[in-house]
Amino acid sequence: MIRQVIVVEGKSDIARVKQAVDADVIATGGLALRFSAIRDIRRAYETRGIIILTDPDGPGERIRRKLSYLFPKALHSFVPKKDASTDQDVGIEEASIGAIREALSRVRLSYQEAADEFTMADMIKAGLAGVPGAADKRNAMADILGIGYGNAKQFLKRLNRFRITRKEWDDALIQWAGNTND
User: Fold this and answer.
1) 3 state DSSP class of 44
2) Is residue 5 within 8 Å of 48, Cβ to Cβ?
């Protein structure tokens, strides 16, 4: 049983997460974030803590930002877009049970005061910004690190907010290089 309450977007997401793990789950009801949903999420946040697990798409990221603002000590979990997509849709309800379990095994806290471990120079040196193919490499690195996809600026912010270590960074780069040589 996961102690924290998992926050997802909709009822289909709740059903899918409950297939994957033993946990209590609350739905936001979408981007509007109804008062009743915020009230329920706040109660869970204050008593047990929450894990934000929104869809890996634009609306999901907007919901995550709103929830992060309202609940700054929330934990975050990300299912990679490639693992939550079908020809028709993108979302947690489309993710495999294994992908949901993997994402929830790599929960991270987003610190309000970001570390200053990484700079844009690190991103450029690693080929994650300013070069052809950088977006694809960032996407792969985000999946490896479990921090969700973002443009170069957002990715850099997440590296520092989630306090990714140099060792995690180096290991992810090695894993990425190994995956591309297959």
Assistant:
1) helix
2) yes
pTM for the model: 0.89
Q: Beta strand 75-76 with 25-27: parallel, antiparallel or unpaired?
A: unpaired
The pLDDT tens digits of the residues spanning 165-175 come to: 999 999 999 99
Strand ranges (DSSP E) for the chain?
A: 5-8, 25-27, 50-52, 75-76, 108-109
Contact 117, 166 (CB under 8 A): yes
Q: What is the DSSP letter of 4?
A: S
What digits encode the pLDDT tens for the residues 50-86? 999 999 999 999 999 999 999 999 999 999 999 999 8
Q: Which two tokens stand for residue 175?
A: 């894993």
Alpha carbon distance 14, 18 (integer Å): 6
Look at strands 75-76 and 50-52 and give their pairing: parallel
Quick one: what percent of the chain has pLDDT higher than 90?
86
* Residues found in the chain: 182
CB 146 within 8 A of CB 106: yes
Sorted by sequence, the CB contacts under 8 Å of residue 104 that are 6+ apart come out as 2, 6, 20, 21, 51, 53, 77
Closest CA to 52 of 34, 35, 36, 70: 70
Q: Tokens 């849709």 correspond to what residue? A: 89
